[in-house]
Amino acid sequence: MASASSTPNTTARTPTVPVPALPGISVPRTPALIAVLNLALLAFVAVPDGGPVAAVRAVFGVAYLSLVPGWLVVGLLDPDGEFGAVERSLYAVGLSLLSLMFVGLALNTALPFVGVDAPLRPVPLALGLGGFTTVLAAVHERRGTDPLSSLPRRPRGVREWRVVALFSLLPAVALVGGYANRVFLTNLPTMVFLLLVATLPFLLVAGAIPERLHPFALYATALGMLVFGSLHTPFLTGRDPNWEYYFANLVVESGRWDPGISFKADVMLGISLVRPTYAMLSGLPLENVYKHTSPLLFAAVPVGLYHLTRVRPWGRPRLAFLSAFLLVSFWSFYTKLADTYRQQLAMTFLLLFVIAWYRTRGTGRTARLGSVLLVPFGFGLTVSHYGTAFVFMALSGVVVAVGGVATVVNGRLDWFEDAPRKLPLTALAAFLVLGMTWYMYVGNGILFNQLSRIGGKILVDLLGLQTSVSATGGSGARWVTRDLYSVSYEVFRWLNYVTVGFVTAEFLAMLSGDLRDRTFARLEYLLLAGGSGLLLVTAVLFPSANPIDLARLYPIALFWIAPLCVGGGLLVLCGLARLLGRPEGAGAEDRRYAALGVFFAVFLLYSTGFVPAVTGEFQYNEGLVIESELGDLSAVADSTNGVPSAGDVAAARFLADHREVTYSVITDFSGVFVWSYAEVPRQDRWPPVESGTTTGLVGREPNDLPPDSYVLFRTVNTERGILIANVGSAKYSGERNYAPAEPYLHGTGSRKHLVYSNGGRVYV
Questions:
Q1: φ and ψ at residue 315, rounded to 5 degrees
Q2: 22, 362, 404, 550: which could form a disulfide with 477 (CB 3.0–4.6 Å)?
C-alpha cells in the first residue's frame, strides 16, 4: 500500500465532468479546449464589426482576454492547487493583462523586422495570443496538469443561489439608474440602488451572506458602485481619460505602438497595448472598452483587499468584509478612480503584488511562488501608472531599509521570532531597478522629470506662493479642508475624521501590543500602514508633494489602513461598553459589529450624496445630479465641466472628420473632450506633430483669436450662455467659475473665423 505522503492531494479540487471519449481516439482536454477557444477568437476577428454576432463577440472577447491566458499561467505555477479559488482568480486576471502586454510588446518589436508595418492589428494579435495560449496548454499536457480542475465551485443549495441572484441584480439596478438619470431625468432608481448597498453591513452581521460568497457579494457591490459613478454618462469624463484615449486611439488607427513619443501616457502599456487589444479583439469601440470593461476589471480590487485582510492572522471574515466595504464606499473609488484608468490597472497590480509579497512569509514552495510572482506584478505596476508606482517605491523602500537594519539586529540579538531574511529583497530590488530602467529609457527620463516637478511644487507650497496648486483651489487635498455651502458635506467630512480616529486607535494598539509577538511580519505591516498614513498627512500639508493627489492616494492607503479602521472602530466600541459598564456577553461582539455597520451605512449614504439628494442641499456627486434642474450658474458650470453632452461629442466628431489638420481648436476650460472625440492633440509634441493643438478661449478678447482656427462652442455655452472658466473654483475658492459667453458667440461670428457650433453650422 502506498504511504499517505505519496498520495496526491485532491481534496481541494472540484470534481470535473469527463469529456466524452471517441472510439479509438484520445483527445487531450486542455489543448483541445484552448484550440476551440482560439479558433473561435480567430473566427470572430474575421467577422466585420457590428452585425448579429457583435454582442457574442464582445462577451467572448472580454472573457477570453481577461481570464484564459492568466488561468493557464496560474495552473503551471500552482499545479497542486495551493492557491484558493479567490487568490487564483485574482492572479488569473492580473496575469492575463500581463500576457496581453507581453504578446503586444513581442509583436510590436519583432514583426517590423519581417516587413509587417502594422503589427498590432486584430489578426496578428489573435494569432499571437493563440500561439501563446497553445504553448501553455501543451506544457500543461506534457506535465499532466489540468488547469480546469481548480475552477471555482458553483453555489450549493437554494440559499447560496438566492444570494448570488440577489447580488447579481445590484449592477443591473445601478445601470438602470444611470440610464434613468440621463434619459428620464430622475435619480430615483439610483437612490434605490444606494439604499440596497447601505444594507450590506446589516446583511453581514445577520449572517445572511455565507462566508464562501463574501468575495462575490463584494465584487457585485463594487461593480454596481463603479457603474453608478461612471455610467451616468456614456462619454469619457475628466482630463486624464481623454488624453489617455488619444494615445490608445493612435495605436488602434496606426496598428503600432511608438515608444519614442515623449509623453507619460504613451509609455504606460495599459494605455498603449491593453486597451487597444481589447478593442480590436472584442470588436467593441475603444470608448466602450474604457467605459464598460474597466469596471469589470477594477471591481476585483475590493475582493483582493478582502482576501489580503482575511489571510492575515487577525483577519476575521467580518473584519475583512467591512475593510473592503470601506474601500467601496469611499467616494473617490467610484467617482475619481472610476474614470482614472491608468490608476485602476496600477492598483490591481499593486494589490496582487502585496498578496504575493505576503505569500513570501510562508515556507518552501509557497514562499518561492510568492517571490516569482513579485517580478511580473511589479512590472505591471511600473508600466501602468507612474504615480502609483512612485508611491509604492517609497513605501517598499522604507520597508527594505528597516528590513536591512532588522536583519543586522536579529543576527546579533536573535530578537525576532520569524527571520527577517524572509523579506524578498531580491524581488523588491528587481522591482525598483526595473522601474527605474523603464522610466529612464523607455519613458525618456519621466522619473527625474516628475521628481523635479514635485520638488519644485513643494518649494511653492513651503514659500506660500500664489501660483501653488493649493492656492488656486485645484488640489485634491481640499476635499478635507474646503468650506462648502452644505450641511451634509460638513457631516461627511466629520465622518471621515471619525475614521481617522479609528485608524489611529488601532495603529497605536498594534504598535504597543502586537510587536510584543516579536514577529517581523507585524513590523512589516505597521511600516506599510504607518508609511501610508505619513503620505496622507504629507498630501494634506503639502498638496503638491505627491505624484497623485490626496483623493487618489487615499484608496491606495486603504489597502493597509482599512483593516485598522474597522479594528479601531471595534476597539473604541469595546472601550465605550466598558466605560458604560455594559457586560461582555456572548453577543457583545455581534452588537459591536452591528453598531459599526450602522456607522458604515451612514458613511456610505453621505459619501454618495444620497442625503443631500433627499434634503435638497448642494449635490456633490455627479451620479445624482440632474443638470437640467440646476438653476445656479456656478453649479451648472461645476456639473458640466468634465461631462460632455451628446451635442458636444457630435460636434467634436464632426470636427475630427472635417478639420484642416494644421488649424488649432479653441474651446473653454472644459473642452478636454476634443482630445479624444475630435482627435486634436493637447500639446505640440503629440503626434502628428504638424497638427494644430487646443487653446483656451477664456482670457482672450473675442476679437483676438487666430484667423486659422476653429472655435468649438459647447451646449452649455450656447444654451446656458456661460463659458467654463476654472474647474472646481466654486467648490474650492469661492471664485466665479464661469464667464459670459455672449461676447464670444457674437465676436467670433462677426470676424468670420472658422467656427463650428452645435447647431451644425460652419462659418468660414
A1: -85, 80
A2: 550
pLDDT of 757 above 60? no
**Whole-angstrom Cα distance, residue 555 to residue 550?**
9
Q: How far from the centroid of its chain's Cα atoms is residue 353's Cα? A: 15
If you average pLDDT over residues 87-116, what whole number do you get? Answer: 94
Task: Tell me which residue range forms the domain holding 660.
Answer: 639-763
How far is it, in rounded angstroms, from Cα 553 to Cα 550?
Answer: 5
Q: How far is CA 379 from the centre of its chain?
A: 17
How far is Cα of residue 600 from the mean position of the Cα atoms in its chain?
22
- The rounded distance, in Å, linking the Cα atoms of 52 and 55 is 7
Average pLDDT over residues 51-71: 92
Question: Beta strand pairing status for 694-696 and 664-667?
Answer: parallel
The proportion of the chain whose per-residue pLDDT surpasses 70, expressed as a percent, equals 81
Q: Quick one: average pLDDT of 515-522? A: 66
What CA–CA distance (Å, rounded) separates 81 from 71?
A: 12
25 in helix, strand or coil? strand
Predicted TM-score (pTM) of this structure: 0.89
* Cβ pair 381, 350 in contact under 8 A: yes
Read off φ and ψ for residue 722, nearest 5 degrees: -130, 150
Report how far apart, in Å, the C-alpha atoms of 450 and of each of 267, 269, 456, 623 are.
Answer: 14, 18, 10, 33
Domain boundary among 112, 147, 182: 147
**Which long-range CB contacts under 8 A does 193-197 form with residues at least 24 apart?**
193/224, 193/228, 194/228, 194/604, 194/605, 194/608, 194/610, 195/610, 196/170, 197/170, 197/221, 197/224, 197/225, 197/329, 197/604
Return all residues near 207 (Cβ < 8 A) that are at least 6 apart.
none
List, for residues 533-551, the tens digit of each pLDDT value.
888 887 777 766 666 778 8
Instruction: Using the structure block, give the residue that is written with the C-alpha cell 483587499.
Output: 305
pLDDT at 485: 62
- Looking at residue 452, what is its pLDDT? 59
Residues in CB range of 145: below 8 A, 6 or more apart: 75, 76, 79
Judge contact between 277 and 146, C-beta under 8 A.
no
- Most confident of the following: 407-411, 517-521, 695-699: 695-699
The domain boundary, picked from 132, 147, 162, lies at 147
Measured CA angle at 336 (ends 205, 391), to 5 deg: 90
Q: How many angstroms from the chain centroid is the CA of residue 371?
A: 24
Q: Give Cα separations from 6 to 76, 140, 146, 705 (angstroms).
A: 21, 21, 19, 82
Which stretch of DSSP H or E encloses residue 344?
A: helix 341-359
Q: How far apart are CA 65 and CA 59, in angstroms?
A: 10
Q: Which of 308-317, 346-355, 409-418, 562-571 has the lowest mean pLDDT?
A: 409-418
Distance of alpha carbon 11 from alpha carbon 79, whole angstroms:
14
Q: Which residues are registered as beta bridge partners of 724?
A: 738
Residues 337, 552: Cα–Cα separation, whole Å: 7
CA distance 402 to 523: 9
Residue 310 lies in a domain: no
Beta bridge partners of 723: 739
Does any domain span residue 169?
no
- Nine-digit cell at 629? 434642474
CA dist 141 and 13 (Å) reads 18
Provide the domain count of the chain. 2
3-state class (DSSP) for residue 667 = strand
Closest among 380, 288, 98 to 106, alpha carbons compared: 98
For residue 618, give the 3-state DSSP assignment: coil
Would residue 33 count as lying in a domain? yes
Return mean pLDDT, the chain. 82
140 within a domain of the structure (yes/no): yes
